[in-house]
Specification:
Blueprint (H helix, E strand, L loop, with lengths): L9 H12 L8 H14 L3 E4 H8 L9 E5 L4 E6 L13 E4 L13 E2 L15 E5 L17 E5 L2 E10 L2 E7 L4 H11 L3
Antiparallel strand pairs: 1-9, 2-7, 3-4, 3-6, 4-5, 7-8, 8-9
Length: about 200
């Protein structure tokens, strides 16, 4: 599935990167660090994904389910919760949340991936409350050298995975993308059926 990524030329990213590198350490802000990281990735040819925008753009399938999923790369299974409860027990009305548990835990803010409200418009016929899917295996050729818990796996159900690195909020750098082999897809299908 093709979704829009934030675009800036590699040359412009290189110029901006030099600008952020020149800021003296005592004058640097958190925003400087994050922007330097973004510009460094783009200067090397990476794409930047606004996750909330991608989910909105991809929309829902025929069963009123999100066409995409996101999971931490170290999870074995991802659960999508429609309109999960927030810490003050109010329910959102047009969002989805992703985590590695069958039950939504509003206190697990570091593990939960909650899309902004108004990401989706749920048709009245929407019946599901929770979906699940195995998280695709990351092939050695694109697997990061560092801990998988620092990365996210973004996919169209159930194929076309991306390896993402979160910069901040809903902004992610696309580190790698690949197509599942027939064997990998068959394994995921088998896992989904509980075999």
């Amino acid at each position: 599935m093709n979704v829009s990524t934030l675009t800036i030329s590699r040359e412009e990213a290189g110029r901006k990167l030099d600008e952020y590198k020149s800021v003296l350490s005592k004058l640097r802000t958190d925003e400087d660090e994050k922007l330097q990281s973004l510009y460094a990735a783009v200067a090397k040819g990476a794409r930047v994904l606004n996750l909330a925008g991608a989910f909105k753009e991809a929309g829902l399938n025929e069963q009123c389910q999100p066409r995409l999923a996101i999971a931490r790369a170290d999870w074995r299974e991802v659960f999508c919760h429609r309109n999960p409860p927030l810490p003050d027990w109010r329910h959102t009305s047009s969002t989805a949340g992703f985590n590695d548990k069958a039950r939504w835990n509003h206190q697990a803010t570091a593990r939960n991936l909650l899309l902004p409200d108004d990401t989706f418009v749920w048709p009245a016929a929407t019946k599901w409350r929770r979906l699940s899917s195995p998280v695709p295996h990351i092939p050695p050729s694109v697997r990061p050298r560092f801990s998988l818990e620092n990365y996210h796996n973004w996919q169209e159900y159930p194929v076309d995975p991306f390896l993402l690195r979160r910069i901040d909020g809903m902004l992610f750098v696309v580190e790698a993308e690949w197509e599942l082999t027939e064997l990998e897809a068959a394994l995921l299908a088998s896992m989904r059926q509980g075999n």
